[in-house]
Design a protein that fits this description.
By secondary structure, this protein is α+β, with helices and mostly antiparallel strands. Helices cover 47% and strands 22% of the residues. The strands form 3 sheets. Strands 6, 7, 8, 9, 10 and 11 form a 6-stranded antiparallel sheet that branches. A 4-stranded antiparallel sheet has the order 1-2-4-3.
Length: 439
């Protein structure tokens, strides 16, 4: 067998394979004998039909089987001989094939990138010197209190901390908003709609214009739809709302006492504080770890440059696009609106995909060098945890994973986590003063 390799482009090669005529004829003889043993032709007992008649009847099948055997074996041996790390399936072109002649074919393949690993031990990262503060505790406990807030109707003028219950109709250029955005019915008209007057929700600038209003008051509210507004057709337009204030409600937070603690399953306020502090400490550790690991990946990426396989980047881009589209569907964005933004979506996806593919090859190569392995028990445990989190029976979850090659994805996730653990264990971490958290 003769094998030659030609570089077509970065990570793309043409592998030309030639198999001697003698081996081709020997394979023809072997396959033909197998067909003779099984052939059932009229007038002959099974396995007793003449060779020429078997060849005539099954010629096409024999040719296909011979070619399959020869190409399958020779392709595998060619990759081993030339030490090629091939991704995906080859694009095979037949050049010459037949009895009494050599088999020649060419396979266009995509290969893993070739690069030298940078020094991945001692990568720099910064960690904020933070601890759980009294301010953190106050914010966390207030969040719990907010979950049990009650609302009392008041007769006074609306304040920043209140809720205004309103009826409204909205227009742009004197026309109902649905003429510009047909799906935005909720932005065009609402009855008994609750607006938080701190201005952190709904349309920017809407709530502030209701401050000082009382039940029964009517106001005209003017807004500018911002560039990042959830409804693209309204971006940059001016909206006019006719608003009637139905009620003003004030928020009443429960007292921070044992009764509140018991409503969250704690014996007392002291026990609730202990639990909240532990949760905040765990969250702080997780946040610091996440930041450190992201910095280490970035440092690793910045230390080496290499070409990426086009197919791998294209597939990852497709995966990212699907994730973005799925997330937009969850947010209520229509298919038509997504179609209008497809160029921006693809551009954003392609940029992120290249980095993800590059990270994947880097971590894989480090794993090989460090001989990092993932055991079947680790995969089983991860699958069990995921099935429990999604509340799906483990057997069904495994079948779903197998349908979409998900077991390999889990293996890769576990492998990558182990490699990043190695990077973190050997990193040069600098502790820096904590950034001031906005009030």
């Amino acid at each position: 067998m003769n094998v030659t390799v030609e570089n077509l482009a970065p990570c793309k090669k043409l592998v030309r394979i030639e198999i001697e005529a003698q081996q081709v004829d020997e394979t023809f003889d072997s396959v033909t004998k197998d067909y003779q043993k099984q052939a059932a032709l009229p007038g002959f007992r099974p396995g007793k039909a003449p060779r020429d008649m078997v060849i005539k009847k099954y010629e096409q099948d024999i040719n296909q089987e011979v070619k399959r055997k020869l190409t399958s074996d020779s392709y595998r041996k060619a990759l081993e001989e030339k030490k090629l790390d091939v991704l995906g399936y080859p694009d095979v072109e037949d050049i010459q094939f037949g009895r009494g002649q050599s088999l020649i074919y060419a396979a266009t393949v995509e290969t893993a990138p070739e690069f030298e690993l940078p020094d991945y031990k001692g990568l720099p990262a910064k960690q904020e010197a933070r601890t759980v503060t009294d301010e953190d505790m106050t914010r966390a406990l207030d969040t719990l209190r907010q979950q049990q807030v009650s609302f009392n109707t008041v007769e006074r003028a609306a304040q920043t901390t209140d809720i205004a219950v309103v009826n409204y109709t909205g227009t742009v250029d004197g026309k109902p908003i649905t003429e510009f955005a047909p799906t935005a019915k909720g932005l065009t008209m609402q009855q008994n709609f609750w607006v938080e007057l701190d201005g952190k929700t709904f349309i920017p600038g809407f709530a502030e214009q209701l401050l000082g209003a009382k039940a029964g008051d009517k106001r005209t509210v003017n807004v500018d739809f911002p560039t990042d507004f959830v409804t693209p057709q309204l971006v940059g337009k001016k909206g006019v709302y006719e608003v009637e204030v139905v009620e003003v409600k004030e928020k009443v937070l429960p007292a921070l006492d044992d009764a509140l603690a018991q409503s969250f399953g704690a014996e007392s306020l002291e026990k609730l504080r202990e639990g909240v502090r532990k949760d905040l400490e765990v969250e702080l550790v997780n946040t610091r770890n996440k930041s450190t690991r992201q910095q280490l990946i970035r440092a690793l990426l910045d230390r080496v440059t290499f070409d990426l396989p086009e197919t791998a980047v294209a597939q990852e881009t497709k995966n990212v696009v699907q994730d973005i589209v799925r997330e937009n569907h969850k947010r209520g964005i229509t298919r038509d609106l997504i179609e209008q933004q497809k160029e921006q979506i693809y551009s954003a996806a392609a940029s992120g995909a290249k980095e993800r593919v590059k990270v994947s090859f880097l971590l894989q190569k480090i794993a090989e060098k460090e001989e990092i392995k993932v055991g079947q028990d680790e995969i089983a445990q991860r699958i069990g945890n995921m099935a429990a989190a999604y509340q799906i029976p483990p057997d069904k979850f495994i079948k779903d994973l197998q349908k979409r090659n998900g077991i390999v994805e889990i293996y890769d996730q576990l492998m990558n986590e182990k490699v990043v653990d190695l990077l973190q264990a050997n990193a040069k971490i600098e502790e820096v003063p904590a950034a001031v958290t906005p009030a």
